[in-house]
Specification:
The complex is a heterodimer of chains A (436) and B (277). Helices cover 48% and strands 13% of the residues of chain A. Chain A is built from 21 helices and 13 strands. In chain A, helix 14 crosses helix 21 and helix 20 packs antiparallel against helix 21. Chain A is globular. In chain A, 49% of the residues are buried. The longest helix of chain B is centred in the first third of the chain and has 45 residues. Chain B starts with 6 loop residues before the first helix and ends in a 5-residue tail after the last helix. Chain B is globular and about 70 Å long. Classes of the chains: A alpha/beta (436), B mainly alpha (277).
């Protein structure tokens, strides 16, 4: 009796498996015959998307491209973080990469050894893209990628209503910023929101200060990579860490237990005036609270010089083309479409940008966030922006987040944290074969 | 008898029940409650009841990415079913031989198998081997990988249990004219039922919940497994916790069903015993 039941079960699973298998092949052949009059009809393009957030944008572009070009695009999603890194490296090493790969640019790209795996697209796209991006998505002057989304910044998001209520002005220097915080604190508001429960958020005040470091010492990135400058010994570098320490008295009391997700809620409920965070938080808040996100504005982490107050920008992920792809024409066509106005509109229509685009001549859509409009007007139209350190040098200590978190908890001083971070970077510099 | 049940035992019972409640039931309630919230409410990750139960979350999970969760379920179920089948059949035989035969070859084989428990599989060489035999990115290949990874542990379980089966049973069977294979098939394997139930539960849960191995050895859009679908709703910068928990609940169901079925079998097997008169 029981044996019958088991064998029935096995038979059933086999039949189901076979049916399911047949089902998928049927669907495949039906799809390819659908559109015959488009230029690349029936051709397949596969793309591996390493993602940390929403897939809405890429899915919208893929739908539009399938209609426009008649190609069939397979999006293979890979989780972000360490697992994703390992998958990408494994797939590259085993020679089994998809036609296109969306992955970080900057130091992480350099670690993939791009010249061996990715096609050189300098002559096709370099003119159309922002110079900072070209530098970040290329190695030794060769461009490998096109921007996968809009850029973002490490900046201060602030509550516009509160600024109006207490009659504050956007601070141009760090001292003005702290003065604003004093006013807010005396009025009983939480002046600065700390979300150190997620350690990566702790490092944003330090990383987002890169523009100011560079303003004080234009060669900082080069000297740092060469081991000539250290954070602990350079004045401007030390100040970046000092800023984290300065913020401690203004933060919410439970900032060590507050997470990034909590932070989004708190900002939307007028629970805090400032939050130093990556502007990708705007998208998350928009998905949660919709248009309420427009009550937030954005200004750069202030430095010393009121005249030269600029924004530190993170370049978006880039899309790289596999060197060994079989149908490079269709892949190229897809990339062309991706950076065309039609493609960009499809993307931004599904997912509003967290910062300006790195594509020359592309206007941000009307409905984009207030904070992003401010970024565009104050820092991009004026040229007061530079890229974060991780796009300028491959040296980034792996314990950066933990060191900043420790500093924010008040257990170390800024000088100690800077020294620790130098020590941490030294390990990586040695691995990279730099003479530190 | 009843009088002797002092207050101490009652307190003990209560403490035990409370611990169970907090360790096992609360996380489940947490998932259920959050799966029924809208996204903004769920972002708070609290135990509060949802204002309006959002049953459509479960429907949404199915709709995500052109019903890709159905593909994922198909893949995961095929993978789990065939891997477990292979594991039960081959490991039971291997465990039987290793336990019953006492010679040098068996010892070496045993050491090799047990080494598999300690030495992890290297990814790139495995992919290279799979590519050479054209099994990379195929379901049979993935099934073989899972079988290979679980074999040492499963053999260990079978071997351990085998020693509780008296050898006299086999001797009696031989005297009655049974062939060696029939001895295994008709006498030993049925007696292994309790441990087989354990093996099925443990291996099925491990393989069904496996995330990293399918990620490396079974890539491709069509080759999705259920654990990977969780990443649709989870990211560093934005997470939809309501959908995430709804997805978690949906993919917990098959394992729960298997557990409920085989849990009963373990008890049956234990009670029936192996030697009678």
């Amino acid at each position: 009796m029981k044996r019958k039941a088991v064998s029935a079960l096995l038979c059933m699973s086999m039949v189901v498996g076979m049916l399911a298998g047949c089902g998928s092949t049927d669907a495949g052949s039906a799809g390819s015959t659908a559109s015959a009059d488009t230029p690349y009809s029936g051709q397949k393009v596969s793309i591996m998307w390493v993602s940390n957030s929403s897939m809405d944008g890429i899915n919208a572009v893929v739908d539009a491209a399938e209609k426009e070009l008649g190609i069939e695009v397979d999006v293979e999603q890979v989780p972000g973080g360490e697992d994703g890194d390992n998958v990408v490296k494994t797939r590259l090493a085993s020679g089994d990469m998809t036609d296109l790969l969306s992955y970080n640019c900057g130091s992480l790209l350099a670690s993939l050894n791009p010249s061996e795996y990715f096609a050189d697209i300098t002559s096709d796209y370099a003119d159309k893209l922002d110079e900072n991006f070209v530098e970040a998505a290329g190695v030794d002057g060769t461009l490998y990628g096109i921007p996968a989304s809009a850029s973002q910044a490490g900046a201060v998001l602030y509550n516009l209503d509160m600024y109006e209520k207490y009659n504050l002005e956007i601070p141009k220097t760090w001292d003005e910023f702290l003065a604003n915080c004093d006013v807010l604190r005396e009025a009983g508001e939480t002046a600065v929101l700390g979300t150190d429960g997620d350690s990566w958020t702790s490092q944003v005040p330090y990383l987002g200060d890169q523009y100011n470091v560079q303003a004080a010492d234009a060669n900082f990135a080069e000297d740092f990579e060469a081991g000539k400058t250290k954070y602990a010994t350079s004045e401007a570098g030390l100040e970046s860490f000092q800023k984290i320490e300065d913020l401690i008295p203004y933060m919410n009391e439970d900032h060590m237990a507050t997470t990034y997700d909590d932070g989004c809620d708190i900002m939307m409920e007028d629970g805090a005036a400032h939050w130093i965070i990556l502007t990708s938080a705007l998208s998350n808040m928009y998905e949660l609270y919709e248009d309420d996100v427009n009550k937030l504005g954005c200004f750069a982490v202030p430095g010393r010089d009121a005249e030269n107050c600029g924004l530190t920008v993170w370049e978006p992920n880039a899309i790289y083309m596999n060197k060994d792809t079989d149908n490079s024409d269709a892949v190229k066509a897809f990339m062309d479409f991706y950076v065309s106005d039609a493609g960009l509109d499809a993307f931004t229509g599904a997912e509003l940008p967290n910062g300006p685009y790195c594509i020359k001549g592309y206007e941000l859509p009307e409905e984009c966030y207030t904070a992003v409009k401010q970024m565009q007007a104050d820092y991009f139209d004026t040229g007061l922006n530079s890229v974060a350190l991780e796009f300028q040098t491959a040296v980034k200590g792996s314990n950066c987040a933990a060191i900043c978190q420790e500093l924010a908890s008040g257990q170390t001083t800024a000088a100690e944290a800077a020294a620790k971070y130098d020590e941490d970077c030294k390990k990586q510099a040695v691995q990279l074969g730099l003479n530190w | 008898m009843k009088k002797k049940k002092s207050i101490k035992y009652i307190i003990g019972d209560i403490v035990g029940l409370m611990t169970c409640f907090f360790v096992f039931i609360v996380p489940f309630i947490f998932m259920l409650v959050n799966a029924l919230k809208d996204r903004r409410e769920a972002n708070r990750l609290s135990l509060a009841l949802p204002e309006m139960p959002q049953w459509q979350n479960f429907v949404e999970v199915f709709k995500t990415g052109d019903y890709q969760i159905l593909t994922a379920f198909k893949n995961s179920i095929i993978l789990t079913a065939f891997s477990v089948l292979g594991l039960v059949v081959f490991s039971a035989m291997a465990g039987y031989v290793i336990q019953r035969r006492k010679d040098r070859t068996t010892k070496i084989v045993n050491t090799l198998v047990m080494a598999g428990l300690m030495i992890p599989a290297a990814i790139l060489p495995t992919i290279w081997v799979m590519q050479t035999v054209h099994l990379y990115k195929t379901m049979p290949g993935m099934i073989l990988v899972e079988i290979a990874l679980q074999t040492p542990f499963t053999i260990m379980l079978y071997r351990g249990f085998m020693s509780t089966i008296p050898i006299e049973l086999e001797e009696a069977a031989y005297i009655d004219g049974c062939t060696p294979f029939s001895v295994f098939r008709k006498i030993i394997f049925p007696l292994l039922k309790p441990v087989t139930a354990t093996v099925v539960i443990l291996d099925a849960v491990t393989i069904f919940n496996d995330f990293t191995n399918p990620l490396y050895f079974f890539p491709g859009k069509e080759n999705l497994t259920v654990q990977v679908t969780l990443y649709n709703f989870m990211g560093q910068f934005s997470s939809s916790y309501n959908m995430l928990f709804a997805d978690v609940l949906i993919i917990t169901v098959p394992m729960l069903v298997i557990f409920l079925i085989f849990n009963q079998k373990i008890v049956d097997g234990m009670v029936a015993g192996s030697v009678k008169g």
